[in-house]
Amino acid sequence: VLEAAASYSPTLHRLQAQEEKAASLALSARGQALPQIKLRYDQTRTGQQSVGQTYVALEYQTGAGFNTLSALRQAESLRLAARAEHEAARRDLTDTVKADWADLQSLAGQTAALESQVQATEQVYASFVRQYAVGRKSWLEVLNAQRELTQARYALPVVVRDFVAQHPTVKLEMHQGSPTQIAEWLVSGEADIAIA
Description:
single chain, 196 residues, mainly alpha, two-stranded antiparallel sheet, 2 strands
């Protein structure tokens, strides 16, 4: 998950490009500080004769040495700063992904608990309705059971709504299935997390 987030992060791509640019500037500045070798070949023809001369020159600029050294240090500092900024952005992205993943797992735990609460409350309500029919429960007890069922049903969407509000970029879909179906969804990649 972390590598996928890093590969989609425009901030990391931008900082990686800045780091590469700073590295190439440092390499260029380092190249300017080195002596240059020049090779030249001249050929002249006079009538039937051809004369060729080869020149090799070594050029080094001593007067601009301090400027070149200063430019080299500046380019290297820019490269190190770009690398530090890139690493900091990567750490921030990692922390964000880990926090979002922890929130998602927390939501999954809350969802499972609330779903089981809804199921249990549905069973209690159905039992109270049957007992009312035979005279063992009062109408008030049936209404209280219905109220508890309604409250349990509304608690689940609140948890989901709060999570989606906190993490608008996360796509959240909830599906219900048998343990076999859930395992197949995880293996095929249709689901990222499951509660059985």
